[in-house]
Design goal:
mainly alpha, D-Maltodextrin-Binding Protein, domain 2, three-stranded parallel beta sheet, disordered C terminus, transmembrane helix, transmembrane, Lig_chan-Glu_bd domain-containing protein
């Protein structure tokens, strides 16, 4: 773009010659924070290089450094898989096995009967890798902690609460791509309990959300100490309940401490990526567009100015003849007037372009 601007400046007479190497070298020095004098002869070109300096040499380079730092400071992912598709692939390769304490769970019923793609692929995976059945939930969790087992568990079940009570010691919870089901309350038609239940659900909606978030999203741990007889005599910290320890990693600090500090509770902070810089890129594009429009307006103004100057020179050329003839009639002899008239009948090239010098008689 800078070469294009410089080339047009040469064509409109604002620049003596085009020097591509010098322009390229000055841009490199801008990138290295060693700027040289970089001035265009047009306002549009200067505005374009201003936008380039602010966006490319300052904002984008600083954001790139931040992107590298955020990528380096992210902890190593300890999840064996990220979503349900990878889970099925690991089970099919026999690196992991499914385990459960209750084979009559809705998940396993759907596994044997549903035609959803997740269940179909999982059926093929467990054909050579059968499901392991544990006697109780704690034993199933112990197997998972030892490694090599995946425990399908419902989010609001007692098994999930027991898993949360272990404070995530070696447990990883993955819900991406897992199937979801809805629960319903079934009543007899025109039952008098329908309106009562609807009103009760609406009245307790905030309490239900608070309770669910408390026990399943806030790492609140239930223990026997919570129901001790001396519970009311304990200090405030113990009365609140037991919480699992927060991870000491940098990402955990951002997701919990930083989330509360910036007042965006419920939204996990993400590292800087190119999608989050869309606004910056949009501002840069708008700035370059404005500079291009200013440059086009300047070219249009320059052409109009040239046409106007040409018309003024033509008018001057026509007026000079009349003025010169009138002056000769007043101040010059008849013989000199004749020479001037002959000269005006055959003007030179310089006189035609209104570049009058001395007239020798």
């Amino acid at each position: 773009f800078c070469l294009y601007v410089a080339k047009l400046e040469v064509r409109i007479g604002r620049r003596n010659q085009l020097e591509p190497f010098q322009i390229f070298w000055k841009i490199i020095r801008l990138q290295l924070y060693q700027p040289d004098s970089f001035d265009f002869r047009t306002a549009g070109g200067n505005f374009a290089i201003l936008i380039f300096t602010i966006m490319q040499c300052r904002l984008l380079l600083d954001m790139y450094q931040t992107l590298l730092l955020s990528a380096l400071l992210q902890p190593v992912a300890d999840n064996p898989f990220r979503d349900a598709r990878e889970m099925v692939r690991l089970i099919g390769s026999q690196r992991f096995k499914l385990i459960t304490n209750y084979i009559g769970n809705w998940y396993f019923e759907e596994l044997h009967n549903s035609n959803v793609s997740h269940y179909r692929s999982l059926r093929l995976a467990i054909a050579q890798n059968p499901i392991h059945i544990a006697s109780t939930v704690p034993k199933a969790l112990d197997k998972v902690l030892k490694g090599g087992y995946i425990y399908p568990i419902q989010e609001d079940s007692i098994g999930m609460q027991m898993a949360k009570e272990r404070c995530g010691a070696g447990l990883v919870f993955v819900s991406e791509g897992m199937p979801e089901v809805s629960s319903h309350l079934i009543f007899r038609r025109d039952s008098r309990f329908v309106k009562l239940f609807e009103r009760s659900i609406i009245m307790n909606l905030d309490f239900v959300r608070r309770t669910f978030k408390k026990y399943f999203h806030s790492n609140f741990k239930l223990t026997k100490e919570n129901f001790d007889n001396n519970y009311l005599t304990k200090n405030l910290t113990e009365r609140i309940g037991h919480h699992c320890k927060e991870e000491s990693s940098f990402s955990s600090y951002l997701n919990h401490k930083g989330r509360w500090h910036f007042g965006i509770n419920g939204i996990e902070l993400k590292p800087l990526d190119f999608g989050s810089m869309f606004g910056v890129m949009l501002v840069a594009l708008l700035g370059l567009l404005l500079s291009f429009l200013a440059f086009c307006a300047e070219i249009y103004y320059n052409r109009k100015k040239k046409r106007l100057m040409f018309r003024l020179r033509m008018r001057r050329a026509l007026a000079e003849q009349a003025h010169l003839t009138a002056a000769a009639q007043v101040f010059v002899k008849q013989s000199v007037q004749t020479k001037i008239g002959d000269r005006l009948q055959s003007p030179t090239i310089g006189e035609l372009h209104a570049c009058f010098g001395e007239i020798y008689i």
